[in-house]
Amino acid sequence: MPAFLDEMFKRPKPVIAMIHTGPSPGVLGCCGVQCAVERAVAEARLFAELGVDGLIVENMHDFPCVHERDMGPEVASFMTCIAYSVKRHVGRMPVGVQVLFQANRTAMAVAHASGCDFIRAEGWTHAHVSDKGIAEACAGEVLRYRKAIGADRIPVFADVQKKHASHAWTADLTLSDLAASIQQHRADAIVVTGTTTGHAPDPEDLLEVAAASALPIFIGSGLDADNFTDYVGLADGFIIGSAFKENGEWSAPVCETRVRQLVGAVEYTRGQEVGSA
Which CATH architecture describes the domain 13-272? Predict the structure, then answer.
């Protein structure tokens, strides 16, 4: 595992759980900031108790999402409040931030202000058409913004061929080309997903990305207790949302039994690796 991941996560093959915040102020279904904070903190504590290695706070319930340029300041304020509260309650556990849609500068500001540890970014290189609108390449502006606010300590985990999107504009590029571009544009890790939330990536895609880039690879969708062992050798870490929820639905409450099952599969795999070392 790369040095910065060793320092951040302590254990190999880290599992990062998604905390999907309640809707932001102004979004249909918002029940208030304090309610959202209490729910996020409760989920964070549960994940920490059950052995998850890290967390990402994401405004997934803001559907239909708007682009960063169309957001009001209330989203950044809301996410900072939640991210700060989560980080304060889990201590040294790494906490990341993702803000939809393609609000990567906002995520950087939130992470910096709340003391969080990394961001997950979409649309890092090569424009594409998502289900929320057009995502333009943003690596240059985000890295310059990171420098300007003094947030150089915060690494970027960048998605390649973002899920829920059409990539017809880059159809003449291979996945290798896209992965190499993400490395060239100074991301710190690459996130590989299936085509939609809850769907695992093709193992061949993971091998292709690994051959094209020296960056650590995180699988960003579709893993569960049943298929984890099939993918564990193909990535450096795992971002998991739906599999931790009741009935495997991303929008459902966290299911303690499902968390225990998946974390158990992870611990078994770690034990196997230690035993064979």
Answer: Alpha-Beta Barrel (3.20)
